[in-house]
Amino acid sequence: MDFSDDIDELCEDMDSVMDMSDLDDLPTAIIVTNVPQSVFSDADEQAAFEKLFLDLDGEATFVYLKNFKRARIQFSSADTAGIARIKNDGIFVSGQPIRCYFFQLRTVADDNHHLQLPQRTKMFLISPPSSPPVGWEPRPEAEPVVNYDLLSAIANLSPGESHELHPSTIDAPAIVVHMCEDPVGFGTNLTPKPKIVQTRRPGPSSS
């Protein structure tokens, strides 16, 4: 495997990179994608892969993500990470090109890293809660709505008679209510239930 160790040609490119962003804003780690499978399984291939970056920073550390064919490389400074990204981005390792990207951790703008309590949306209506909020007042219940006309009409219906509520039309039949007979004597003509005879307890056995 042939890897070039000369980085003098990258100085001019790095000057333009440093002009675009402050070093304090640049990360100190890069992510390498499309890493060949041989780098994860062969010690010699892995050593040659690491040499690409150790020649730039002898203190670089490597974290391999085999399932994703990636590697995370941590450098001692941001400028070294920038040089490594430019120098090794797109070079061929074991016959396939690798890609190098800056690894930037996402920062949370809010100083509080805990989840906030959800907004109170519960409506405290008739039943008072166990701990009423400030300013809560009980709400009086409304009077029940009773249709006295309906009750009067039902009371005037005579038992045993039929009452037509809606006459029949061409498109719909009539609606007729048949009142039940007088329930006096109800059940007298039914067959009486058979009486359950209890089994007699046997007497004492003779010896």
Question: TL;DR?
Answer:
One of its GO terms (cellular component) is cytoplasm. It holds the Pfam family Calcipressin. This protein has 207 residues and is an alpha+beta fold.
What can you see in these coordinates?
The protein is of the alpha+beta class and 207 residues long. It has a domain at 28-102: RRM (RNA recognition motif) domain (Alpha-Beta Plaits). It is built from five helices and eight strands. The protein has helices at 11-20, 37-41, 43-54, 78-88, 148-155, and strands spanning 29-33, 61-65, 70-74, 92-93, 96-97, 99-102, 162-166, 175-178. The strands form three sheets. It has a four-stranded antiparallel β-sheet, with helices on one face. The chain has a two-stranded antiparallel ribbon with strand order 4-5. β4 (92-93) and β5 (96-97) form a beta hairpin. α1 crosses α4 (78-88). The radius of gyration is 46 Å and the shape is elongated. Belongs to the RCAN family.
